[in-house]
Design a protein that fits this description.
Elements (H helix, E strand, L loop, with lengths): L6 E7 L3 H17 L1 E6 L7 E9 L3 H13 L5 E11 L7 E8 L1 H17 L12 E14 L1 H5 L6 E7 L1 E10 L2 E11 L11
Helix pairs in contact: 2-3
C-alpha cells in the first residue's frame, strides 16, 4: 500500500462467524422463496457499518484513529441480536434486503453519532443519511420480475441470526475485484468495560 494509492474504507462492527453463518443459512432459505435479479452478499461481507468514507489516503488513517479511539473508550461492549427482515428504501421500491438488530440500540446510535461528530472535527464529511442498524443480505438489482417478496416479508419476524456482544469498532479496507469485494482490517478500536455508555440489557 503506497501513500498515493486510494483506500476504499469504512468503519463497522464485525459480527462473529456464528452470526454470519446463521445469516448465510437464512440466505439459502430465501433463495428458494425469491426469484429475480438479486445479488447476495457473501458472509464475509456482512458488516454493521457505522461510517463509509469512500476513498481515503494512507495519511488519513492516523486522523481517523485520533477521532475514533477516544469515543470507543467511553463505550462498554454492546449486546445485540440480529433479527427481522427489512427493505430499503421501502416495500414499493425495494433495493436492499437486510436483517435488523435489537438490543443496545440506544448506545449503538450514540456511538455512531459521536464517531461521526468527532470525524467531522478532523475534516471528514458528516453522514447525511439517517443511521439504521442492519446487515445486508441481498441487493435487488431490479424489482421487475421479482417474485415471492411479499410472502417473505409477511414472515419477517421469523428470521433470526443470533445474538452477540460487540467488543470493538474496526476500520476496514474494501478492495473491489471481479470476484467481489475483499476486506482487510486497517485498525481496531476496542470498547472498554465500565465505559460511560454501559450496556443496559
Amino acid at each position: 500500500m503506497t501513500e498515493l494509492e486510494p483506500i476504499r474504507a469504512f468503519l463497522a462492527i464485525e459480527p462473529p462467524e456464528s452470526v454470519r453463518q446463521a445469516a448465510a443459512t437464512l440466505q439459502s432459505r430465501l433463495r428458494y422463496s425469491l426469484s429475480g435479479a438479486l445479488g447476495w452478499v457473501r458472509p464475509e461481507g456482512m458488516h454493521l457499518t457505522l461510517k463509509f468514507f469512500g476513498n481515503i489516503s494512507e495519511g488519513d488513517i492516523p486522523r481517523i484513529s485520533a477521532a475514533v479511539e477516544p469515543v470507543t473508550a467511553r463505550f462498554a461492549p454492546l449486546n445485540l441480536e440480529v433479527r427481522r427482515l427489512g427493505l430499503f428504501p421501502d416495500s414499493r421500491r425495494p433495493r436492499v434486503l437486510w436483517l435488523g438488530l435489537s438490543g443496545d440500540l440506544g448506545a449503538l446510535k450514540a456511538l455512531q453519532e459521536e464517531v461521526d461528530r468527532e470525524l467531522a472535527r478532523f475534516g471528514f464529511q458528516r453522514e447525511e443519511r439517517p443511521f439504521r442498524a442492519h446487515l445486508t443480505l441481498a441487493r435487488i438489482k431490479s424489482a421487475r420480475g421479482l417474485s415471492g417478496l411479499d410472502r417473505v416479508m409477511n414472515k419477517a419476524e421469523a428470521f433470526e441470526a443470533g445474538r452477540f456482544q460487540a467488543v470493538s469498532l474496526t476500520l476496514f479496507r474494501s478492495r473491489l475485484t471481479p470476484r467481489g469485494a475483499v476486506y482487510s482490517k486497517l485498525a481496531d478500536y476496542p470498547f472498554l468495560s465500565g465505559g460511560e455508555f454501559a450496556s443496559r440489557s
